[in-house]
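TICKET: design request
STATUS: open
ATTACHED STRUCTURE:
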C-alpha cells in the first residue's frame, strides 16, 4: 500500500510544481481551487452470479458488491489529477466459488476475488488537442479487442505507465508505454511489463480507419514478445430509414520466446442493419493458428465482449478459433434486450479437435432514472468435440448498479 500512497502523493506534487505554466488558460485561480472545485463520484455494483458446468466441479454462487470511489481535481492551467479506490467483496455469506486465488477449488470459477486497491491514480495534462496521462489508469482502445479494461469483472483491469494522445479534426494518434498490468485477480496476478501501444485513426465520415501496433513484453528477464500489427475499418451509413453498419479488420501476430517463434493472423468481418427499433448483426471472427501449435492471443483485451459471454475462450486454443455469430436486439419498455448465437470451430482442425461448440446468450438491462441500472444476463455454452477439453456450461448474472 505504501507504493500506492506514494503514487498519489507524487501526482499531487507534480501538479503543484507545474502550476505556473500557461497562466492564460487557467480555469481556476489556485491549487486550492483545483481541489475544492473538483468532483467526487461513487459507483456501486451489486451482483449475483451462478455457474453450472457438466463436470465434477460444484456449481458456483457469488454475491458481490463492488464499490468505486473517485476524486478528480478541476483543471489548473491544463493540469489535473485523479485518484480512485476500488473495493470488491462477498456479501451475506454467498461465496461458494473458486475465486482463482486458491479459495474453494472444488467449485467452478467466478473471477471476483475479495480486494481493496488503488484502481487509478494519474496526473493529466491537456492543451490544444494534446492529452497525456502519467500513472495508473484505464486504457480502452477501439472496441477493446486488443486493449481494454475488462469492466465486466468487479475488479477491472488498469495499467501503470504513460499515455499520450493528439487529436486534430478527423485525425487522432495514441501512444502508450506500460510498465505494469493490473489484472482482474486482485494484486496476486499483476504483471510487470514493457509494453508499447500505437494506435492512429482517421474519420472518413462514413467510417473510421485505424492502424495499430501492440508490442507486448512481460518484464521477467526471460525472452518473450508478442507483436501485433493490424488495420480496422468500422462505420455506418443511412439508407432511407435503415441504418447500415459494417466492420472489417485484419491483424498479423508474432509470438517469440527463447525457444519458439509462432505466427498467426486475425480476421473479423461484420455487417448489420438497424430498422424499426431492431438491430440485427452477423459476423465472422477468426483467431488464426500456426499449424495447430499456437492460437492468436489477445491478453490485454476485454475478452468478455467477444466469443460468447460464457467466457470459454479467454485463451485461444492452439488450433485457433473461428466464431460465426448472429445477434438481434431492441428496446422493451424503457430497457434494452439482446439475443446472440455463436458457432465455434477450430481454424486448424486436428484428429481430435474440429467442433468447438456453440453458445446462446440473452440479456436485458433497464435504466431507472439516470443513476440506476438493473440487469439480467444468461449464457448457455454447449461443448463440441471432447478433445477440446470443454464442457457444457450455464452462467446467470443478476445485478444492480448505482452511480452518484
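STATUS: resolved
RESOLUTION: sequence designed for all positions
ATTACHED SEQUENCE:
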Amino acid at each position: 500500500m505504501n507504493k500506492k500512497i506514494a503514487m498519489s502523493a507524487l501526482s499531487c506534487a507534480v501538479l503543484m510544481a507545474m502550476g505556473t505554466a500557461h497562466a492564460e488558460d487557467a480555469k481556476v485561480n489556485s491549487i486550492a481551487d483545483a481541489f475544492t472545485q473538483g468532483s467526487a463520484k461513487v459507483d456501486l455494483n451489486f451482483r449475483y452470479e451462478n455457474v453450472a458446468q457438466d463436470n465434477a466441479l460444484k456449481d458456483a454462487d457469488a454475491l458481490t458488491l463492488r464499490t468505486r470511489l473517485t476524486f478528480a481535481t478541476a483543471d489548473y492551467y491544463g493540469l489535473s489529477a485523479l485518484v480512485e479506490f476500488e473495493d470488491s467483496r462477498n456479501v451475506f455469506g454467498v461465496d461458494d466459488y473458486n475465486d482463482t486465488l486458491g479459495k474453494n477449488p472444488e467449485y467452478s470459477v467466478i473471477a471476483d476475488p475479495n480486494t481493496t486497491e488503488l484502481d487509478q491514480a494519474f496526473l493529466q495534462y491537456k492543451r490544444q488537442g494534446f492529452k497525456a496521462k502519467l500513472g495508473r489508469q484505464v486504457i480502452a482502445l477501439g472496441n477493446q479487442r486488443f486493449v481494454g479494461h475488462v469492466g465486466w469483472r468487479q475488479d477491472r483491469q488498469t495499467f501503470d505507465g504513460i499515455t499520450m494522445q493528439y487529436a486534430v479534426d478527423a485525425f487522432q494518434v495514441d501512444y502508450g508505454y506500460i510498465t505494469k498490468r493490473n489484472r482482474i485477480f486482485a494484486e496476486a496476478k499483476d504483471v510487470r511489463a514493457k509494453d508499447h501501444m500505437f494506435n492512429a485513426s482517421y474519420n472518413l465520415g462514413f467510417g473510421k480507419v485505424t492502424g495499430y501496433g501492440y508490442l507486448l513484453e512481460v518484464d521477467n528477464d526471460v525472452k518473450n514478445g508478442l507483436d501485433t500489427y493490424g488495420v480496422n475499418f468500422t462505420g455506418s451509413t443511412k439508407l432511407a430509414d435503415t441504418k447500415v453498419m459494417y466492420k472489417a479488420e485484419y491483424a498479423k501476430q508474432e509470438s517469440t520466446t527463447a525457444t519458439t517463434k509462432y505466427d498467426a493472423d486475425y480476421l473479423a468481418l461484420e455487417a448489420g442493419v438497424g430498422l424499426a427499433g431492431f438491430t440485427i448483426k452477423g459476423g465472422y471472427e477468426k483467431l488464426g493458428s500456426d499449424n495447430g501449435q499456437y492460437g492468436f492471443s489477445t491478453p490485454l483485451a476485454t475478452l468478455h465482449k467477444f466469443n460468447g459471454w460464457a467466457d470459454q475462450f479467454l485463451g485461444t486454443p492452439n488450433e485457433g478459433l473461428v466464431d460465426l455469430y448472429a445477434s438481434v436486439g431492441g428496446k422493451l419498455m424503457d430497457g434494452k434486450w439482446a439475443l446472440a448465437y455463436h458457432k465455434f470451430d477450430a481454424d486448424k482442425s486436428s484428429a481430435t479437435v474440429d467442433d468447438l461448440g456453440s453458445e446462446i446468450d440473452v440479456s436485458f438491462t433497464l435504466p431507472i432514472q439516470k443513476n440506476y441500472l438493473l440487469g439480467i444476463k444468461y449464457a448457455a455454452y454447449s461443448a463440441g468435440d471432447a478433445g477440446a477439453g470443454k464442457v457444457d456450461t450455464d452462467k446467470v448474472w443478476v445485478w444492480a448498479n448505482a452511480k452518484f
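CLOSING REMARK: Residues 1-26 have pLDDT under 50 and may be disordered. The chain has two helices and 18 strands.
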